[in-house]
Amino acid sequence: MQCNRCRNEPVLFQSSSGRNLCRDHFLNDFEARAKHVIRLNRWMRPGDHIVVPLGGDAASAALLLFLERLTAGRRDVRVSPLPCCAGQLVPDREEILQEAAEGIGATRIALPAGVGDIAASVLRDLLSGMREESPVYAGGPHPGGISSIRPFSRATTEEILLYARLQGIGGGEPAPLFSGDAFGEAVADLLEAFGREHPGALFAVANFGRDLAACRTGMREDDS
């Protein structure tokens, strides 16, 4: 078996594209997607101070490393770790993250949520009818607070953890997205099981949520 882009040994079968990728081509592909997401959503602007909450997991440490390298040649953007709690934005941690980020003058909170997290949050909101209260949509500001961004939102959890490992980063998986929320956990488990057979479903649900968020934002702007 060979990488679909060269003759080297693959480190990953990318189910969403049907390609085998070697180490170098996987890293290039992963980082290119993250950069595209940042550009597409205009998540990095002059004067930004981006913080990455660290909780001992490999995903948040990998996100911090990626953003530090991305901004290494820039003086107009600052990236800092925020060692307060795990790097997922869920209701029981949201207020803590906001207060800690505001305390050091941050303008954005970067979270290592992947496409599975985004899709699970979208589906949970659709099934529970909690669309207005949801903090899931990347780039959406917390009421009266700091916007959150998710540069790894086009990658699977498997890809994020592989990226971390290839960068020499240890640590466990991120905290469960819906810790203590039985309904949310059930939705996430259901989507994960379905996604193993139909990997494109995660991206489809995440895209649907993004499109709905864009429509909602457009309607609000029209009303103003």
Under CATH, the topology is which? Rossmann fold
Note poorly predicted spans: 86-92, 219-224
Strand arrangement within the widest β-sheet reads 4-3-5-6
Shape: globular
**Through-space gap between termini:** 57 Å
Strand content: 5-15%
Q: How many β-strand runs?
A: 6
Our count of domains comes out at: 1
Q: Please state the average pLDDT score.
A: 84
Reading off the top of the CATH hierarchy, the class is best stated as Alpha Beta
Q: Number of helix segments? A: 7
Q: Share of helix among residues?
A: 40-55%
Architecture, according to CATH?
3-Layer(aba) Sandwich
CATH superfamily: HUPs
Largest sheet: 4 strands, parallel
Supply the helix-strand structural class: alpha/beta
Order of helices and strands: EEHEHEHEHEHHH
Question: What is Rg?
Answer: 17 Å
General description of the model:
- This protein has 224 residues and is α/β, with parallel strands linked by helices.
- The chain has one domain (33-223): Rossmann fold.
- It is 49% helix and 11% strand.
- The protein contains seven helices and six strands, in the order E-E-H-E-H-E-H-E-H-E-H-H-H.
- The protein has helices at 23-41, 58-70, 91-103, 115-128, 157-166, 182-197, 200-223, and strands spanning 10-14, 19-22, 49-53, 78-82, 108-110, 147-149.
- The strands form two sheets. It has a four-stranded parallel sheet with strand order 4-3-5-6, sandwiched between helices. Strands 1-2 form a two-stranded antiparallel sheet.
- A hairpin with a 4-residue loop joins strand 1 (10-14) and strand 2.
- It is globular, with a radius of gyration of 17 Å.
- The model is unreliable at 86-92 and 219-224 (pLDDT under 50).
